[in-house]
Amino acid sequence: MDFQDIIYDVSEGIATITLNRPDKMNAFTGRMMYEIISALDLTDADDNVKAVIFTGAGRAFCAGADLSSGGATFSKGGSDIQTKQGVPRDGGGMVSLRIFNSLKPVIGAINGAAVGVGVTMTLPMDIRVASDSAKFGFVFAKRGILPEACSSYFLPRLVGIQQATEWVFTGRVFSAEEAVNGRLIRSVHSGDELLNVARGIAREIADNTAPVSVALSRQMLWRMMGASHPMDAHAVESRGISARGRSADSKEGVTSFLEKRAAVYPDRVSDGLPDIFPRWEDPEFY
Hints:
Belongs to the enoyl-CoA hydratase/isomerase family. By secondary structure, this protein is of the alpha/beta class.
């Protein structure tokens, strides 16, 4: 598949999606939205891909929405996708929901400015690492608009309501040091080290774990953030242990441990995942 606003590369089990408008600081466009979604469709379908890394080309990760339309930038909503309610769907939200539904773990390697949708699209990524030159900003109130990309759901769950409100209400741009102290990112690294750190995390996942177990675990952890009672977790986990305990992966995991060798897990994500979420249905846009 040919991409224009991103670069898609797979090497040694790791897919790297690079936002690729460096002359525009990787500003977000409708084309970029569609290309990110398409790239994640590829990673889900490719059993050779065990983990996904997002990063940006040039000196920015993503400086936010493309403002080339001037004051009319946000007048038509966030995308060209219309709903029966007559409300255009937010393009950043479409990307965030697609990342949320990824069957592969997603790591953000934030190499520079991540502002507006440039930071909110990273919130459903599982692990975020940043360069020491990265800057972050939830600047929506300074543009006369509102948080988007499902960030009103993800941000307070990740950093707590007090930190979320401070960043959103002030709209200020802040440093990687403040981001790590506020638990928005895992760690800060030099620009030269950043991708190696992200790849090291991805490599540890790819080399040592069962892809089906990781895919299910990812869904469990994210979905349980919105659960109303631990019984919801107990019901899902009981179904999951029952299904995976009978799998070829489980047999291989135990046998390889006892034989003190590296495991070779036979189950494939593309063959489908056991249905362990009895009450979970993706809601329709309303």
